[in-house]
Write a structure and sequence with these properties.
4-stranded mixed beta sheet; alpha/beta; 2 domains; globular; 339 residues; N-(1-d-carboxylethyl)-l-norvaline Dehydrogenase, domain 2; Rossmann fold; 9-stranded mixed beta sheet; 18% strand
Length: 339
């Protein structure tokens, strides 16, 4: 099988579409792979368009569905939803060169899922918190900047990691390398739990995090996630206003309020008012990543005998919305608080 040089973006939604478009504009050969045939057709015919306050441009691109991928590749950026990780990884395996890697540009602990299929040595981790949305076939909205962090699972600053970092600097000049990628990933799980809670309502992220009647509940949710991470021995790392240690068991309430205020200030810079979770529930009417993102917190909490009743109930409530058994409403937060 011939080894080709193009960078493969597997999943051309908000994350993959945005990053890939910047790389194409910079002159890199990129192959987009997406299961949405309409998205693929529009990209091939009209190109890929980035809109929003960060940048606005269109580029001609090559795109195929997974069934039409040919050849072998050394660099694959996996950008699918977390619950599609294993299936997508198995689709990638026949096209991954012997010295190739898969970088998990996703939300959750998907690096571990990928590693179970291809081995840890063939996985690079990534933590992302920029704002973006798939708006229509061929159109991605890049609504605000946020953390872009990559790291090897063993913490080594390898040559392939440095080369990938150089590519990420094209997308965001503040992208960094870390030797503790799991610290960022566990930090994002805590923040993600807050976003899932806000998605129980129709309120914006900023309005939800600002609301005085919601903050006590949100603080307890973040405390559950932080307690599990600390017990596992990880040092959860903060980003864009979210400070995990502000939600540690011994942290003062004022620390939590300061972190909430900082998160609101960061999110207020973006035109993305609601989370991608909310869009999945309210606009796209599809399953969310709740099991893949929040499930590990509850599972590890049970193993470590750390109670996570709020996050467990939050998962159930999200599923009820997905199944049409519950509507988006501020009253959902009050109900969750009674758990």
């Amino acid at each position: 099988m011939v080894v080709n040089d193009p960078i493969v973006i597997w999943g051309a939604g908000a994350i993959g579409g945005a990053i890939g478009a910047f790389l194409v504009r910079a002159g890199y050969d990129v192959l987009f792979v997406d299961q949405d045939t309409a998205h693929v057709e529009v990209m091939n015919h009209s190109g890929l368009t980035i809109e929003g306050p960060v940048d606005q441009f269109s580029v001609k691109v090559r795109a195929v569905t997974p069934a039409h991928v040919e050849g072998s590749y050394t660099r694959v950026l996996l950008c699918v939803k977390a619950h599609h990780t294993e299936g997508a990884t198995r689709q990638i395996v026949p096209h991954l060169s012997n010295d190739g890697y898969i970088a998990s540009f996703q939300n959750g602990l998907n690096e571990l899922v990928i590693a179970d299929v291809v081995g840890r040595e063939r996985v690079i981790g990534a933590f992302l918190n920029f704002g973006g949305d798939y708006m229509a076939p061929g159109v991605i909205q890049l609504s605000g900047r946020g953390a872009v962090v990559i790291g090897e699972l063993d913490g080594i600053a390898s040559e392939r990691l440095k080369a990938l970092h150089a590519l990420m600097l094209i997308f965001d000049s503040k992208a960094i390398i870390t030797d503790h990628i799991f610290g960022y990933l566990w930090g994002k799980l805590g923040y993600g739990a807050l976003l899932f809670a806000t998605a129980l309502t129709n309120a914006s992220i900023c309005d939800s995090l600002t609301a005085s009647d919601a903050r006590p509940l949100l603080r307890k949710i973040a405390q559950e996630a932080t307690a599990v991470a600390l017990e596992l021995g990880y040092e959860p790392l903060g980003f864009n206003g979210y400070v995990p240690y502000a939600f540690a068991p011994e942290a003062a309430e004022t620390d939590a309020h300061a972190s909430f205020d900082a998160m609101v200030a960061h999110n207020a810079k973006s035109i993305k008012t609601h989370s991608g979770i909310w869009r999945d529930l309210a606009i796209r009417k599809r399953k969310t990543e709740v099991d893949a993102q929040l499930g590990p917190i509850v599972e590890q909490g049970k193993r470590l005998k750390i109670p996570t009743p709020l996050i467990a109930r939050l998962i159930t409530m999200i599923h009820e919305i997905e199944d049409g058994k519950r509507t988006l409403d501020w009253a959902n937060l009050a109900e969750l608080a009674t758990t």
